[in-house]
Specification:
mainly alpha; about 80% helix; single chain
Length: about 100
Amino acid sequence: KAVTNVICSIVFGARHNFEDSAFKTFLQDMDIRIGTPLIIIILSPLLRHVPKLGKSSKMFYESKRRIHQFVEQKLEEHERDVAPNDIRSFADTYIKQIRSGQNKN
């Protein structure tokens, strides 16, 4: 938990309260992603028809979707209030690079 929170503070510029429900879900999803055996990941299209393994495969892909939602939400929050000359995190740097690329096109 603490390591993930430190990484989030570097990437998003803020630490999360361990009681925050969105952060709790994010931690649970990370545990699912890390704890899923590689064989289930590789064979997931085939294993979805096997009841017990199919459930693991489904949980694995649902956790991926929720992790992406969490990151997208954090990036959207940063995008609303990012200041060009006030870089607070990697997310701000990412947004600044995306915007500078859009301005060139």
